[in-house]
Every structure is written in structure tokens, then in C-alpha cells.
From TrEMBL, chain A:
Protein species of origin: Sphaerisporangium corydalis
Protein name, as recorded: ABC transporter permease
InterPro entries to which the protein is assigned, alphabetical: MetI-like (IPR000515), MetI-like_sf (IPR035906)
Residues covered by the ABC transmembrane type-1 domain: 56-240
TM regions (residue ranges): 64-84, 105-134, 187-207, 219-239
Subcellular location: Cell membrane
From TrEMBL, chain B:
Name of the featured protein: ABC transporter permease
Sequence intervals crossing the membrane: 66-88, 100-118, 124-144, 169-192, 220-239
SUPFAM superfamilies: MetI-like
Ranges for domain ABC transmembrane type-1: 59-239
The species this protein was found in: Sphaerisporangium corydalis
Family indicated by similarity: Belongs to the binding-protein-dependent transport system permease family.
Length: 249, 259
């Protein structure tokens, strides 16, 4: 009974909304809002007859490569900057400025240096994702408990042990917060960099559909992008829960 | 202990260093001048831009789009957040939907927006509102969840009318969260406003950047990127100042002021 109720709570509204969409468009001859049945019908044929490996996987691959690099860079630099107060004071305004630049404007800038290939797209993703991760890591490292820090010093923990046992775990909640922001920026940049200039990829394909007025296909692209966003955030949440499981009070 | 210089001096040093690097690397030939012009060339281009009416019009259009999008998202987010958060049934029923809709990247809607509105202002507005709305809504929902049950029950026992309950119990508790949503939303709205202009081509600084890039006016492009960055800094600072001002009474802010 309880499970049933939970199920209704979880799925009730989404099912209702989809049903509404279905019913509202069932006889639609509006060009922009094709019937949902038609969209669902073209989904398989649009994405799973070659496009999945030709467009979706390269996009997601670039996203993961860029995001991974940004994580390494952001956490690495963040720990260094966070542990050195003078360095932090010197770099703070510069970092604030770079963070405030809306990441998509980096696309035209980086196109100058790296052309329009895969390198450019990964670079764009890195240079957008890195700021929230970096700044949150700096904050996290700075906020590590003073007493714990002194204790570690008293016990003469070595550099390595201090980093792995004290600084990184202490800063990990903040790092995760930054990594989550970075991920959503990364998805945006994945799409934008492909809309600008590309020969393949999700963003490219969706814009192509729009330009050729393949409206149902365009809708499937929007839905697929949405699903990817939801899936990645789910994976992130699972990873975060595992990483921070020790923190449960 | 050695005295360290004050933070503003160190920060100024950092900025000066950045300017120096930007000036020097293209001059000594570390990077191609065509790709990264020296800082002085960027400043010159900026001065040139500031003399044109087009620059100021674009700046105004960007700010207007940002403010409009943020405003709509704030009103919608706060109203819906209070309603959904205040009614337990609504909250449990909508949780899964919100969790599903929120991570959908707003840029996925760009093709739809272009199809519906063309390169009009409304295309960008749609994307800005969509992205900003979730930031605000989620914060308001957190805020409403944070309401002290005793305060809520007390208000109910005294038979406060629903609107009075909202004004005296719900709103003051949720306000810090609303302002956090405002701060996050302000930054997100600016990102999506510029993105929309850049990709869709609706009027504003983003479109100017795309045009400068297409016509090979590299220093002007960098100048505009710097302007956009400065707007970002100003937006962040203004949002933080608003937060402090509106929450002067709140313990979290009052604690920061040394006794």
C-alpha cells in the first residue's frame, strides 16, 4: 500500500503531464507542435540508426573528456591556491573576473586558437567547467577545520597524508558542489560549441533539424538532450552520495 | 612574523600581472598577435567601441534582456515555490517532475525558440527564463521546507489567515533562500542572455561578439569579452550587496559585522 502510494507520488504528475501533451497534440496540425505520437514514433529511427554512434557518443565523449580535465585542473590548482594565502590574495580578483565571463563567449575566442575541431570543443568545455570547480575547491580548502589542521601538524603528518586524509576529505563537500555546477556548465558548452561550428554531434544535429524544418526530429533531439542531462545528473548524484557517505551525521 | 601586504594590494598585483602577461606574450611572439592582440590594442578597440552608438545600444539590450528574464523568473519562481512548498500534497506530487525538468539543459530549447520566434528578443528570453526559473524555484522550495514547525503551528492555532501566515511565517524564513536564488539566478540569466545573443543572434553584446569574430576584428572581440566579464563581476557584486541589504536583520548577516 505504502509502495503504491509512493509510486503514485513519484510518477503521478509526470505521467499526467505526458498524457496531457499527448492528448493536446493528438490531432495537432500545427507545424511547430507535432503530435507527441509522431515524435515518439520518429525517435527510434532518428537516433538509433547510426546517429547514436556518429553524433551522440562523440558529444558525450568530448563532454566527459573536458569535464574530467577540468576536475583534475580545478581540484589541483584549487588545493594549491587554497593552501597558500598569499597566492590566493594575489589571484582572487583575477579568478573572480574569469568566473564572471559567461563561458559561451569563450567559443569564438578559442576558435581562433584551436580551429573548429575536437580540440576546440574540449578546450571550451574545460575552460568553462574549471572555474566553479576551482573556486569551490579554494573555498573548501580554506574552510578546513582549524583544530583538525593543528592536530595534523602536531602528529607530524607528512605532506601526502595531510593532503589525502585532511585537506581533500575536508574540502570534498565544497568540491562536489563546484563539480555539480561545473557539470551543468559543461553540458551547456557541449551543445553550444557544436551549434557554432561542427560536423557532427548532438548540438549540430539538432540545429540541422531545425534549419531544415524537420520538426518532429528536432523535438526528439530536444528530448534526447534532456534525457542526457537528467541521466548525467543522476549518475553524479550517485557518485556524490558514495563519495560523501562517511559524512552522514 | 613577517607582515604581509593588505589583500587589496595583493589583488591589485594579480590584476596588474594579468595585464602584463596579456601585453607581453603577443609582443615577444609567444602567441600569434592575430589571435591574441596585446592588451593595449584591446583597450584601444574598447575605446573605439565606446564611441559608437551601436555598442551602447547593444549594452542596453543585453541588460534589458537580462533584467526582464530575471524578473519574470523571480516572480514565477517565488510564487510557484510558495504555493508548491506551502501545500504538502503539491510538494510530494511535484518533486519527481521538478527533479526531472531541472537538469534539462536550457540550451536544448534553442532550436525550438528559433523556430517559434526567429532571432527575436523573445527567443533569448525564453531560454533565460527557463534556466533562471529552476534556480529560483528550487531555492524557494528549500526555504519553505526550512520553516519552523512550531512557528507554523502557532500561526495556525492563532487562526492567522493564509495570506497573513505567508507574510509573517513563510516569507521571513524563505527570504534568505529567495535571495540566494536571486544571486544564482542573476549569474545564470546573464550567461544565457549572452549565449542566446551569441548563438541565436538576438540583439545585444553577444551578437556583437559573434559579428566581431566573423569580420576578423579580433581586438574588438576581446574588448567585448572583457566588457561582458565586467558586467558579470558587477552583477555578482550587486546581487551580493542586495542580499546583505535585504537581510540586514538576519542573524547570518548580523554575525558578520564585528561587535
Amino acid at each position: 500500500m505504502n509502495a503504491l502510494r509512493k509510486g503514485v507520488q513519484l510518477l503521478g504528475l509526470p505521467v499526467l503531464l505526458i498524457a496531457l501533451w499527448w492528448v493536446a497534440t493528438v490531432n495537432s496540425d500545427n507545424f511547430f507542435w507535432p503530435p507527441l505520437s509522431e515524435i515518439a514514433g520518429t525517435f527510434r529511427e532518428t537516433w538509433f540508426t547510426g546517429r547514436f554512434t556518429a553524433d551522440v557518443l562523440p558529444s558525450v565523449g568530448r563532454l566527459l573528456a573536458g569535464y574530467g580535465l577540468a576536475l583534475v585542473l580545478g581540484v589541483g590548482l584549487g588545493v594549491a591556491i587554497g593552501s597558500l594565502p598569499v597566492l590566493r590574495a594575489v589571484l582572487e580578483p583575477v579568478l573572480e573576473f574569469f568566473r564572471a565571463i559567461p563561458p559561451p563567449v569563450l567559443v569564438p575566442v578559442l576558435m581562433l586558437f584551436a580551429g573548429i575541431g575536437t580540440t576546440m570543443k574540449i578546450l571550451v568545455i574545460v575552460s568553462g567547467c574549471v572555474w566553479p570547480i576551482l573556486l569551490n575547491t579554494v573555498e573548501g580548502v580554506r574552510a578546513v577545520d582549524e583544530v583538525l589542521r593543528d592536530t595534523a601538524r602536531c602528529y607530524r603528518l607528512g605532506r601526502r597524508a595531510r593532503l589525502l586524509r585532511l585537506v581533500l576529505p575536508g574540502a570534498s563537500p565544497q568540491i562536489c558542489a563546484g563539480a555539480r555546477q561545473g557539470l551543468s556548465v559543461g553540458i551547456i558548452l557541449m551543445v553550444i560549441s557544436e551549434m557554432f561550428a561542427a560536423g557532427n554531434g548532438l548540438g549540430f544535429t539538432v540545429v540541422q533539424f531545425q534549419r531544415t524544418f524537420a520538426v518532429p526530429q528536432m523535438w526528439t533531439g530536444i528530448i534526447l538532450l534532456g534525457l542526457i542531462g537528467v541521466l548525467l545528473s543522476l549518475i553524479f548524484r550517485v557518485a556524490e552520495a558514495r563519495l560523501l557517505s562517511w559524512r552522514n551525521e | 612574523m613577517r607582515r604581509t601586504p593588505p589583500p587589496w594590494a595583493l589583488g591589485g598585483l594579480g590584476l596588474a600581472g594579468l595585464v602584463l602577461v596579456l601585453e607581453a606574450t603577443p609582443r615577444v611572439g609567444l602567441v600569434d598577435r592575430r589571435y591574441l592582440p596585446p592588451f593595449s590594442a584591446m583597450v584601444e578597440a574598447l575605446a573605439g567601441q565606446a564611441g559608437t552608438a551601436e555598442f551602447w545600444r547593444s549594452l542596453l539590450e543585453t541588460l534589458r534582456g537580462w533584467a526582464l528574464g530575471l524578473g519574470i523568473a523571480m516572480v514565477a519562481g517565488v510564487v510557484l515555490g510558495l504555493v508548491i512548498g506551502g501545500v504538502p500534497v503539491a510538494r510530494t506530487a511535484t518533486t519527481s517532475t521538478i527533479e526531472f525538468l531541472r537538469p534539462i539543459p536550457s540550451v536544448a530549447l534553442i532550436p525550438l525558440a528559433v523556430l517559434l520566434f526567429g532571432t527575436d528578443l523573445r527567443s533569448t528570453l525564453l531560454i533565460v527564463v527557463y534556466a533562471t526559473f529552476w534556480q529560483v524555484l528550487v531555492q524557494v522550495l528549500y526555504g519553505v521546507r526550512d520553516v519552523d514547525p512550531v512557528a507554523r503551528e502557532t500561526a495556525r492555532s492563532y487562526r492567522f489567515r493564509p495570506l497573513t501566515q505567508v507574510r509573517t511565517v513563510l516569507w521571513p524564513t524563505a527570504l534568505p533562500y529567495v535571495l540566494t536564488g536571486f544571486r544564482l539566478g542573476a549569474a545564470v540569466a546573464l550567461i544565457l542572455e549572452i549565449t542566446g545573443e551569441l548563438v541565436i543572434g538576438s540583439p545585444g553584446l553577444g551578437r556583437q561578439i559573434a559579428e566581431a569574430q566573423n569580420s576578423g576584428a579580433v581586438p574588438a572581440m576581446y574588448a567585448l569579452v572583457i566588457v561582458v566579464g565586467l558586467i558579470g563581476v558587477a552583477v555578482n557584486a550587486a546581487a551580493r550587496a542586495t542580499e546583505r541589504r535585504a537581510l540586514r536583520w538576519h542573524p547570518s548577516i548580523r554575525r558578520e559585522i564585528p561587535a
